[in-house]
Amino acid sequence: MFSEFRKKIDGALSKAGEKITERRISEKDLNKVLKDLKISLIQSDVALEVSEKICQDLREKLSGKEVKRTKINDIITESFRYTVKDILSQSTPNLIEEIKDSTGTSLVLFLGFNGSGKTSTLVKFASMLKEKGIEPVLAAGDTYRAASIEQLDKHGKELDLKVIKHDYGSDAAAVVYDAVEHAESEGKRVVLADTAGRAHSNTNLMDELEKICRVNRPDWKVLVIDSLTGNDAVDQARKFEEAVGIDGVVLTKMDVNEKGGAALSTSYSINKPILYIGVGQEYTDLERFNSDVIAERLLSE
Ligand code: GDP
């Protein structure tokens, strides 16, 4: 994607027969190449408004600039890298350290669409905490989807962790409340709560989510987004941010999605940090987010 763009701008600045080694980049030079870049970004799952922002930033940085022909590629690459990093610039809190440092029991709520990878992320994070010597209590707060309680229970057994559960159809806020009470009475540092996967258009489930938050006041509301959802990631992130407020994002299935556009779009649209990325289906397939990796992914395409 990006190498194509660099070739085009190089071409635009070196018209046939031209001998000059240095010239000023004009608006006209930029118009065509930035239009192509915007299309390439959108094809890499970068949301339209974010693609426009990147192109605008590049325009401001490059327009009217005197450049040596041989340096054009370097200048464009650096400008692009800088713009991407700027969008991903929120510092990434270390959730494990935050839990360790807080007094009392922390509550981490995992939110997101059905199939986004909420339960998988929760159990991967539980396993990561266990590795660090913190034993979380798991709350089966998805009382809506058949099999989700069993799914969490199964992981709880595998990881040898306590799972607090009620029956299907019961009040999810009460499940989370009980889990926090249990953790507090056992002196446990953290509760990881699953929630029903919802569509942002699903008012009932959004109301339920608000109730869970009102009753239990989570310390961390972590939105889990499937990185394969592309442009829709922005819409999902905004809706959850409006409904309950988000503290951080986990992008899953980054092992399947080579592009990295969803990271850029989500981070830009709600201005919240990406905490972790999911990179597979094993317990150990959760990695701390690194913005350099995303910039390089987009540059290398
Ligand atoms: P939930 O409905 O949001 O709780 O989603 P699940 O946790 O049940 O995950 C849905 C599917 O996505 C399952 O098949 C998971 O194994 C898979 N999945 C979740 N995270 C990842 C990931 O990071 N990489 C891959 N390849 N698959 C994942």
Structural features, described:
There is one protein chain. 51% of the residues lie in helices and 14% in strands. With 301 residues, it is of the alpha/beta class. The protein folds into two domains: 2-87, Up-down Bundle (Four Helix Bundle (Hemerythrin (Met), subunit A)), CATH 1.20.120.140; 95-290, Rossmann fold, CATH 3.40.50. The longest helix has 17 residues, at 27-43. It is elongated, with a radius of gyration of 23 Å. Residues 112, 114-120, 197, 252-253, 255-256, 278-281, 285 line the site of guanosine-5'-diphosphate.
Keywords:
Rossmann fold, 51% helix, 301 residues, Four Helix Bundle (Hemerythrin (Met), subunit A), 12 helices, two-stranded antiparallel sheet
Q: Please bin the fraction of helical residues.
A: 40-55%
CATH 4th-level superfamily of the largest domain: P-loop containing nucleotide triphosphate hydrolases
Instruction: Write the CATH architecture name of the largest domain.
Output: 3-Layer(aba) Sandwich
User: First CA to last CA: what distance?
Assistant: 5 Å
- The CATH first-level class of the largest domain comes to Alpha Beta
SSE series = HEHHEHHEHEHEHEHEHEHEEH
Number of helices: 12
Largest sheet: 8 strands, mixed
The proportion of residues in beta strands is: 5-15%
**Total beta strands:** 10
How many discrete domains?
Answer: 2
